[in-house]
UniProtKB/TrEMBL annotation:
<protein>
    <recommendedName>
        <fullName>Bifunctional diguanylate cyclase/phosphodiesterase</fullName>
    </recommendedName>
</protein>
<feature type="domain" description="EAL">
    <location>
        <begin position="24"/>
        <end position="278"/>
    </location>
</feature>
């Protein structure tokens, strides 16, 4: 906490704060290094299933294998990357790894699987985002139909006309769009309705708390109905139990993702689910 010295000024310095700043600076330097050397950053895949438990694709989730700290959570380093601008280089790396994965699927004949990747606001804001992604698809000879982009409401808080324009351009290429973490942001519904999403993802937190009260159950039900009324498919995230799966299925939820089926795993481990591939 800030302390007053004799002169009536506020001293903001204290050791714990210096510690935290030092840690952050170190983490930033290490992340920069990891991005530059392309070392230790790997996309993990979490299967997405339909109501018959057939795997229809996966969400790509970045993992950082840190030499000293072990696995660092994206919840820790994605915000840091966003604040420092490192998300641009990191995002390029993620998009390229995603194309490599789809390329490999192509070679294995897995041409129906769709890979969803997360895109942060500063990434999507780049003037050349569409061109760069299009070039990658060409470079790896990857069909755009096997790629889906997950955007959160924070992306939509930018220049809306620009966002819509980019989404439309990318959709014309065949790329699909999912609205991630639905219900956790501040967007108005009329705002969201302007956007040509294909899929709406119900946030983990809604599914986790679903059975705490009838009100919470009703919220999930309402989200599914809303999405369907708008012509969108619904993915439920954070499906951890059979009870979750049963209830969400009964609501007409289209796709499911969660620890009940699999945690995010490295790509070769994802393919071990192949007998369930659609
Ligand atoms: P998200 O995109 O909403 O991803 C879903 C998160 O829920 C993932 O956390 C996933 O591991 C977790 N999850 C999945 N199933 C369950 C479940 O059954 N129970 C629980 N409790 N959690 C489950 P993760 O991998 O730690 O990623 C956290 C967030 O970091 C992501 O949220 C996304 O916002 C961001 N992120 C992860 N990878 C990337 C990336 O490649 N690029 C960008 N820009 N952001 C990423
Ligand atoms: Mg996501
Ligand atoms: Mg999400
Ligand atoms: Mg999230």
């Amino acid at each position: 906490e800030a302390k007053r010295n004799g002169m009536g000024e506020i001293r903001l310095y204290h050791p714990e704060m210096a510690d935290a700043i030092e840690k952050r600076v170190k983490l930033e330097a290490e992340l920069r290094q990891a991005i530059e050397t392309r070392d230790g950053l790997e996309l993990y895949l979490q299967p997405q299933l339909d109501i018959n438990r057939q795997v229809i694709g996966a969400e790509a989730l970045i993992r950082w294998h840190h030499s000293e700290r072990g696995m660092v959570s994206p919840a820790e380093f994605i915000p840091l990357a966003e604040e420092t601008g490192l998300i641009i280089g990191l995002g390029d790396l993620i998009n390229e790894q995603a194309c490599q994965i789809i390329r490999q699927w192509q070679q294995l004949g897995l041409t129906d699987l769709v890979l969803s990747i997360n895109v942060s606001a500063p990434q999507f804001q780049q003037m050349d985002f569409v061109d760069k992604l299009n070039s990658l698809l060409k470079q790896y000879e990857v069909p755009a139909g096997q790629l889906k982009l997950e955007l959160t409401e924070s992306v939509l808080m930018q220049n809306l006309d620009d966002v819509i324009h980019k989404i439309k351009e990318l959709k014309q290429l065949g790329i699909q769009f999912a609205l991630d973490d639905f219900g956790t942001g501040y967007s108005s519904l009329s705002y969201l309705m302007k956007l040509p999403f294909d899929v709406l993802k119900i946030d983990v937190s809604f599914v986790r708390d679903m059975f705490q009260s009838v009100q919470k159950e009703a919220i999930v039900q309402t989200i599914v109905q809303l999405a369907h009324n708008l012509g969108l498919k619904v993915v439920a995230e954070g499906v951890e139990t059979e009870k979750h799966f049963d209830y969400l299925s009964s609501l007409g939820c289209d796709y499911f993702q969660g620890y009940l089926f699999s945690k995010p795993v490295a790509e070769p481990d994802f393919r071990k689910h192949s007998k369930h591939f659609k």
